[in-house]
Fold each of these.
Amino acid sequence: MSGTTAQRRDITAAANQRRFRDLMSSFPTGVAVVTSVDAEGAPRGMTCSSLTSVTLEPPTLLVCLRRGSATLAAVNTCGSFAVNLLHADGQHTAELFAGPDPDRFARVYWRRSPAGLPHLTDDSIAVADCRVAGLLDVGDHTVVLGQVGVISRSDGTPLLYGLRRFAAWPHQ
Ligand SMILES: Cc1cc2nc3c(=O)[nH]c(=O)nc-3n(C[C@H](O)[C@H](O)[C@H](O)COP(=O)(O)O)c2cc1C
């Protein structure tokens, strides 16, 4: 038989990951950019589709952020974060905040909220400031619970992501 036990285990793990990615690609979501402030006071942010509502009382959501992420480190330090829900024209911003550009905030219009959190006002249909209410490490990600505070809303329809591509909300 060819291959070591460890090699066979790696191949099985890769196949399982591929099946899991396929599964989740069939579950379309909206697209958010999670933003916070790092220890030096600089804005940090990343594209995130793992946003989920958790409870109504108190209003709580969760995001799953990869461990080792600079944004997660900032959320940990700051104790709060903003969830910027991108509008249908926000694909470029979604790609920017998921890509290798080290200077993401230099390429978008943003301002600090009264709480000091970075808001991507031009790219969002809604922004919610959240206080970290819990953290749970699960494998290669950390589940971050956020208690929702101030919410601001604008006009527009949401950007969608599914089947490994972006889409706009269909016009009615
Ligand atoms: C549509 C989309 C959704 C994503 N959702 C998540 C997510 O929920 N959690 C996550 O950790 N990474 C997610 N990513 C990947 C991160 O945006 C990407 O790894 C980013 O570079 C992380 O930023 P950081 O290195 O500053 O932490 C997503 C990427 C895309 C394009």
Amino acid sequence: MFTKPGLLARSLELRLLVPLAITIAVALALHAAIGYWGVREELRRFIKADLARSTSLIRSATHDGMLLNRLDEVQSRIESLGSSEGFTAIRVYAKDGRIALTADTGERGRVVPITSDECAVCHVNGERTGPKVLRNADMPVLGDGHEGQRALSVIMNERGCSSLECHPPASHRPVLGVLDVQMTMAPFDEAISRARQQLGTTTILLIMTAGLIVALFIRRLIHEPVERLHEGTRRIAGGDLHTRIEVAGHHDLAQLAGAFNGMVNDLRVAREELAEWSRTLERRVEEKTRELREAQKRMTRVETMASLGKLSATVAHELNNPLSGILAYARLSRRELSELAIEPGAAAPIDGYLALIDRESVRCGEIVKNLLVFARGQSVRTTMASINEIVENSLMLVRHHLEMHRVRLEATLLSGDPTIVAERGRVQQAVLALLMNAIEAMHGLKDREAVLRVRVEGDDERVVLSIEDTGVGIEPELVPHIFEPFVTTKGETSGVGLGLAVVYGVVHGHGGEITVRSTPGAGTTFTLWLPRRRAEASIEPAAGEGVVPGARPQAFAAETGESCERGGA
Ligand SMILES: Nc1ncnc2c1ncn2[C@@H]1O[C@H](COP(=O)(O)OP(=O)(O)OP(=O)(O)O)[C@@H](O)[C@H]1O
Ligand SMILES: [Mg+2]
């Protein structure tokens, strides 16, 4: 089972701090212990040296008195020395173990056994071993609760002493007695205790200070950078790739932070590129979808126009002969009616009916003719023509309408070569239809000026004619159907809805294109491209062309004066 690791296991700072602190504490404690031991030994040596010095001082101070056997004087000197600080006992033992002289007068005359420590300078287990000197011998704890130091030194019989008369009984003895000097270790113990206390306090303070400094260093050098790295990873995990981890210096963690920043930067760039790619992809998918939709619409429009073209061509060809017959028989009837011997008053209404049939047949013939132009059921013969001339002629024809509708004309013709290979009459018919539509669209404008802008441009491959007006514009839902035959908003009396169908047929019949851009309430621009055909050629049929087998347009065309026969059936 997973258990959450403890704080020590989790925190890098603690994992470093604890062993370091323990190491420092142990090192400082060891250092303090060694120092304490050294001081203690040094002091002990000093006390021992002091004891030796004091012993030799006592010996010198009492030397003369002893030599001259002035024991009272020696006694009083020993007493006076014994009252000095640090001395716990100054004794002189006689050869028989009796305390002959002492700083503590109460113990004078006391005899120590021969096996005692005092006698061990000369006797081991009661047997004489010969004189020797014991210095700085350790003594058991003294009565005041402190350890003491003791120096036992043999008082030898000197030549000066043994030759004197003062104490002849001693003259034959090599050893006169033993000087016993004892000093308390109380001052030493106090100094040692003070030193221990000071050392202890200093060591604790040092451990705490060292621990604090180490903790501060670890915090500054390890904890803070690691914390910043940690915080940075948390921010990145949260999606913030603009984050930067600032760790000053050139050490490992600073380099790690630098590498980390580099990685985040790469990650951000990669993410931005990815986002950009996905945006571009989305955009391109949208563009392609739009293009596809447009292409689909165009296809549908082309198909519609093609079907309409077929239908128109069929209807036109089928109507052409009956219409020719009606017109021919109406005229024949009028002629024969005029030759009949009938009263003019009685024949007039019949003649009027026949004249009406004649007029309406001609009108129907016009419609049939235009349908044929839209359908391009016939191929046409082209010649060299000037687009400038065609446009100028067309403008001249509509001049009267321009003046009538108070339309300002702005015309710019092609400055370079205006030549195109086209069927002049058809192109002029198309330009006229467009000009008339534009003028009619500006009829009765009140809120703005009526302006007609006609512009011809071109390059080596084609000429571009644009006709712009500031008229009423076309509703968006009508635009896709604008070139279909019989689409009109002008009512039955003023428009048939064949003008733009004719334009479409002419333009496509010449291998060109036509587009319309319109804003309702602002105006419309028709732009048509016509290729410059250098060589005279038969223009390929467009919508519905060649689908009218056996069409016979000549009979009706002759009547209407139109050049249907120019292209041939
Ligand atoms: N410049 C234009 N400004 C506004 N609407 C236009 C413009 N040109 C054409 N239209 C619209 O397109 C319709 C079709 O035009 P089209 O020329 O084919 O037929 P029409 O002008 O109505 O009749 P006609 O057969 O006499 O030309 C028009 O009824 C009109 O609504
Ligand atoms: Mg029209």
